Amino acid sequence: MAANWNKEDAVPVVDSLLNIYPDVDLIFAHNDRMAIGASEVARRHGRGDITIIGIDAAPNIGIKAVADSVIDATFLYPTEGHRLIQTALKILKGKPYEREVILPVSSAVDLSNADILLLQNETLNEETGKMRLLKRRIDDYWAQHSSQTSLFYASIAIIILLFGVFFLLLRAFWQHRRHQAMLMDQNRLLEEERDKQKMLNEKLEEATQSKLMFFTNVSHDLRTPLTLIAEPVAQLAEADNLTRQQATLIKIADKNVRILRRLINQILDFRKYENGKLDLKLSEVDFGKAIEEWMESFRAVARKRDIRLALDAPDGESVKMALDSEKIERVFFNLVSNAFKYTPDNGTITVAYHIDGDMLSLSVADTGEGISERDLGNIFDRFFQVDRVHPKGSGIGLSLAKAFVELHGGSISVESEVNKGSVFTVKLPVIHVSEVASEVEPVNSGADVEAELGSIESAFEMEAEKPVVLVIDDNRDIQKLVGELLAADYNVVVASNGAEGVKRAVKYVPDLVICDVMMPVMDGLECCRRLKEEVSTSHIPVLMLTACSMDEQRVQGYESGADGYLAKPFSAKVLLSRCSSLIANRKRIKELWQSAVNAVAEKQREAVKEEKQKADKPVASDIDNQFYNRFIEIFMAEIGNSELTVDSLASKMGLERTQFYRKIKALTNYSPVELMRNLRLKQARVLVTTTDKTISEIGYDMGFSTPAYFTKCYREAFGETPTETRTKLGSR
Ligand code: ADP
Q1: Residue 600: pLDDT above 70?
Q2: CA 212/CA 403 separation, integer angstroms
Q3: Within 10 Å of residue 550's Cβ, how many Cβ atoms?
């Protein structure tokens, strides 16, 4: 009968069964719970004798009931249901399966083994408990271990991080220290530099002071003798019985005496100003009239140089104000002459003035070379010059102008742009005094302006038979002076810088070049190097002129190919003797070349025998050798060409006809036509004496248009006809 596998349901079932079958001897319940229920019912029915058997042998239920004698036995029930299910599934899926599954035999538990089983179970439970405890502990340890491992890795990561941070901090610290040390070093250096600069400034100031003092003293001493020179020179310059050369030399002297005189006056005034001893002599002046008068002195120079000199004056009333007119005239003179000095021919110079409130504004604007921003700040410093190498003045003019303007309570300023021009502006307060200026002569006359800014006219005439000397110097007065000193013996050509010098040398192929070392555009060393590299000019001797006689410069000069050196100032005698010795040297080399031409013919005689010929190299510069060898090569290739002209030879040599002519003449003393005929005849003579060719054949081979002309030239050159040469040779 079914009883739902539990005790409570089994009780009524067993009860009813016992009622129906009171003499049952054994009850077999399908599990221990139902067996226990059945035992209870059997006892109640007074049937403690019924053997009751259960199944499952669960320790706390079945086995305990056996031990307590509630039931008589129970069976361990190894159902092994999973094996049945596995077999069933295999059958369903059609997989191979074991046909027989032997289940383990169930074993019975009764009073005889129940206690042991219970004990075993208890022990098992205890062991299981211990195992569980152990497992828990192990789990705990694992958990602890893994958290410790994580902690360990985290610690390592933190340590590495800390190390990293520490390293970075350390590095930053060292860098900071290094930086600081560097800054301190720099600071120290800067301080040292500043101290040095300060010391230098002080020294410079001292030097300037002593320079000024020295200049002042010297200027005082110079003024009297200079006046004594100036007067006679000025009078001499007026004389009308001078030769052209004397007139030019006197003009050079007059011009430079005036420049010196003005410089000396400027220095003395500057010194007075610095010592506070320069007074203002104010008087009421008609400014407009004064300006017009002052400008007049510049008109002639402006005309000569095609410079537009404009005056931009306010219309209407004349401007009357108190000025020290002599000083303001000198300011004006300085500004306008600077404008002339630094403005090229065909430029424009504009003088403008107007009243602006209680100030008079006077400006001088030019379209000249301008002043760079770097130099603008120093322009009013004493002795400052933008171009110290090629100064056009002394550098004192503007500082004195500033001093004069400031004495009047005014100011002076400049605006300038390189290659566009400059504008100098003077502002003077308009004040009045009762004293009216008497008519004063302008301090600077047209002659002064002319002397300082104009150039001395003197064209050198060319005479055919004189040697040509090219004088290259940026100072026009030196050009003139050297030119005049040489004019008696030489034709003089001049150039103002190296680049112009090279051009002129190529054009004129002079016999000598005299060249300054320091020049704008292209200096003397470079110019000399170019001359020595250029085929048409390489043979020309170069004499270098320089203001200093430093050995180093001399070496540089010789390295660039200069043939001689002359330190300025030089005497006319020395200059002339150096020139003539250099030209004589050149002549000797020329003679050497001349004999070299003959040597070439000699060589050819040998060369014909060996069926080979090459030109000889005489002693001269490599460029000249190369030039001559190339000439011989080109000419020999065309020797039979009777149409060969000097023009075509020159163009093959890459030179113009005149350059070619001068070069050949300078090297060999023959004109190209003479040289060609000479070489042809000498070659012809070689052929006459060494070959069996007929005379007319040789004549044609050597480029003579007819045999008769060949024979004529041959006789002129050798004093016999080609046939006579042969007969003489045959009879030998
Ligand atoms: P200097 O007597 O040499 O002319 P200044 O004191 O008058 O001396 O001028 C100082 C420098 O200022 C000159 O060397 C020149 O380089 C520059 N300078 C003056 N005026 C001009 C100008 N109008 N244009 C360009 N440069 C000028």
Answers
A1: no
A2: 15
A3: 11
By alpha-carbon position, which residue is closest to atom 11 of ligand 1?
A: 385
Q: Whose CA is nearest to atom 8 of ligand 1?
A: 395
Distances (CA, A) of 304 to 298, 300, 309, 346, 684: 10, 6, 12, 10, 62
Query: For residue 364, which atom of ligand 1 is closest to its CA?
Result: 23
Q: How far apart are CA 7 and CA 18, in angstroms?
A: 16
For residue 208, how far is its CA from the centre of ligand 1 (angstroms)? 19
Q: Whose CA is nearest to atom 23 of ligand 1?
A: 339
User: Measuring CA to CA, how many Å separate 407 from each of 99, 399, 429?
Assistant: 139, 12, 11
343 close to ligand 1 (CB < 6 Angstrom): no
Q: Distance, CA 585 to ligand 1 centroid (Å)?
A: 45
- Of 390, 391, 529, which Cα lies nearest the Cα of 513? 529
**Pair 445, 297: CB distance under 8 Å:** yes
Q: Is the CB of 367 under 6 A from ligand 1?
A: no
Is-contact 493 470, C-beta < 8 A? yes
Name, in order, each residue with C-beta under 8 angstroms of 15's C-beta and a sequence gap of 6 or more: 41, 44, 45
Give the pLDDT of residue 714.
87
8 Å CB contact between 634 and 622? no
As given in the structure block, the two tokens for residue 637 are 């290739």
Instruction: Please tell me if the CB atom of residue 97 comes closer than 6 angstroms to any atom of ligand 1.
Output: no
Chain segment 486-544, per-residue pLDDT in tens: 888 888 888 888 888 998 888 888 889 999 888 877 888 888 888 888 777 888 888 88
**What are 14-20's contacts with CB under 8 Å, separation 24+?**
14/38, 14/41, 14/42, 15/41, 15/44, 15/45, 18/42, 18/45, 18/47
Quote the CA–CA distance of 348 and 294 in Å, as a whole number: 17
Q: What pLDDT sits at residue 178?
A: 92
Task: Show the beta-strand stretches assigned E in 357-429.
Answer: 359-366, 411-417, 421-429
Q: Measuring CA to CA, how many Å separate 629 from each of 590, 602, 616, 623, 703?
A: 16, 15, 8, 10, 20
Cβ–ligand 1 contact at 704 (below 6 Å): no
Beta strands in 395-502 (DSSP E): 411-417, 421-429, 468-472, 491-495
- Predicted local distance difference test score (pLDDT) of residue 608: 41
Cβ–ligand 1 distance for 385 under 6 Å, the answer: yes
Q: Is the predicted pLDDT of residue 602 greater than 70, yes or no?
A: no
Closest listed residue to residue 335, CA positions, set 423, 409, 455, 258:
423
Predicted TM-score (pTM) of this structure: 0.52
Mean pLDDT, all residues of the chain: 83
Report the residue among 331, 379, 389 best suited for mutation to probe ligand 1: largest number of ligand atoms under 8 A from its CB: 379
Query: Do residues 118 and 67 touch, judged by C-beta distance below 8 A?
Result: yes
Cβ(469) to ligand 1 under 6 A?
no
Contact status, residue 668 vs residue 659, Cβ threshold 8 Å: no
Residues 6+ apart with CB under 8 A from 320: 284, 285, 286, 287, 432
Q: Which amino acid residue places its CA nearest to atom 21 of ligand 1?
A: 338
Please choose from 260, 338, 371 the residue to mutate so as to test ligand 1's pocket, defined by most ligand atoms within 8 A of CB. 338
The DSSP bridge partners found for residue 516 are 545
- For ligand 1, whether the C-beta of 380 sits within 6 Å is no
If we measure between CA atoms, which residue out of 455, 382, 446 comes closest to residue 207? 382
Q: How many whole angstroms from 393 Cα to the centroid of ligand 1?
A: 8
Task: Report the alpha-carbon distance of residue 505 to residue 513 in Å, rounded.
Answer: 8
- Count Cβ atoms below 10 Å from residue 347 Cβ, excluding itself: 20
CA-to-CA separations, 286 to 311, 320, 445, in angstroms, rounded: 16, 5, 19
Both tokens of 51, joined, read 């053997």
Alpha-carbon distance of 473 to 501, in angstroms, equals 9
> Residue 439 CB: number of other CB atoms within 10 A?
5
What is the CA(383)–ligand 1 centre distance, in A?
A: 10
Is any ligand 1 atom within 6 A of the Cβ of residue 384? yes
